[in-house]
Amino acid sequence: MKDVTLKIVGKHIYENVEEDQLELVTEGKLYKKDGDIFLTYDESGFTGLEGCRTRLTLSDGTVSMTRSGSAVGVDTEIRFEKGKRYNGYYDTPYGTIEMEVLTNDLVSTVDQDGNGVIDIDYNISLKGLSEGRSRLNIEVSEGRFQ
Prior knowledge:
Largest sheet: 10 strands, antiparallel
Structural class: mainly beta
Strand order of the largest sheet: 6-5-4-3-2-1-10-9-8-7
Order of helices and strands: EEEEEEEEEE
CATH class: Mainly Beta
CATH topology: Lipocalin
CATH architecture: Beta Barrel
Number of strands: 10
């Protein structure tokens, strides 16, 4: 297992204009198993998910994001694969709701040493609550960001 630094930037896009940006720099771990790369980090109070651990699994053109812990009542998984839809469930403070994710674009350049970028452009629909487009950019580095 290797220590890495993650710079995570999430953006919501309204009418093709990026708004509502959230940026977090955190320490994480990287490990490899059966050819896949795994990144884990603990969420903070800043994200509203304190007590939650997020794991990213990078495998053959897909990125799976799994959240578990005391901040989520039900473990949540989202799978991103360019051009594909993923149906699942999203846990909120008000209960679990159905979710649909369509990945518009996915680029992952994270290497075995723990350096690179994950860039995901996706549409998400939380049944009955909201629909929108988002971008998630995660820079991974063996060192610290300036």
